[in-house]
Here is the input.
Amino acid sequence: MTAPRHFASDNYAGVHPEVLQAIAEANVGHAPSYGNDRWTERARSVFREHFGASARAFPVFNGTAANVLSIQSATRPYNAVICADGAHINVDECGAPERFTGCKLVLCSTPDGKLRPADIISRLTGIGDEHRVQPRVVSITQATELGTVYTPEEIRALADTAHANGLLLHMDGARVANAAVGLDASLRQITTDAGVDILSFGGTKNGLMGAEAVVFLGGPEQIEFLFLRKQAMQLASKMRFLSAQFVALLGTDLWRRNAENANRMARLLAARLEGVSRVTITQAVEANGVFARVPPEHIPALQEQAFFYVWNPATSEVRWMMSWDTTAEDVEQFAQAVRDVVK
Here is the structure.
């Protein structure tokens, strides 16, 4: 019996078979611990191949840790982080960024999840005033929490604004592969080349098993980060099993193949729902998510077909996420269910 596939989150998907194979191959014999192994050395190399010779990658266990450690590496507790009000670091990390960095999150309201340079400028108040938190980091999400995507030009404008004011640009790249594919760009073009300073690289949503990374994209290696990662309990003793996954993902075109499928399935679902009069797509479908308003009385019946989350109960907006393993059959069946239920 085929296990059901849902539309709640790309975290719901399993681990890609090529990644499982890489883990199995790394599970032969003994290897030095804490990253002193050949898989981790190769992983560092493939990150440099994608992000540039100055890129330094540090594997961690989950995205919250990647985000918190990225911010912590660049701030002091009296600093502030400028981000969108819907950012994952604000909404979905249980206050971890504030608790473990001591920084205040300064929020910007945005209808599509994307910050603009004017948002940064508007939050640069109280500079030098000892009574006010001091902005230090701008954090953006790529793709955004609303499924939209920053172009390289938009990222560069944010980076230039941040740098001109003594701030760093952090990217929460939980779905950076989906964004790159959606833009028909390389990973480097939307990160290093666009001026991003620190990247939280997402692997779990693109076919890996509990593997993320903090990537410093310029300058000398962040020696202090070694201690931050250890103190945060994110230094893997058997790091070869994390690193082998990155080698499988980035050492081949697997990252692109997985993201291409997820994005294609999102576009297919949006296309199949065109003409359903009581379903309104609310955001541009630029990555692997479809956001739509659905009559609230029909949501429970649709969730029985394939589970998904209600994004905004006040407006009856839902989120349908596609994964590396979502099939056209999954989409066609669900789209037909929507047409049958929402009349």
Observations:
- The domain at 17-250 is CATH 3.40.640.10 (Aspartate Aminotransferase; domain 2).
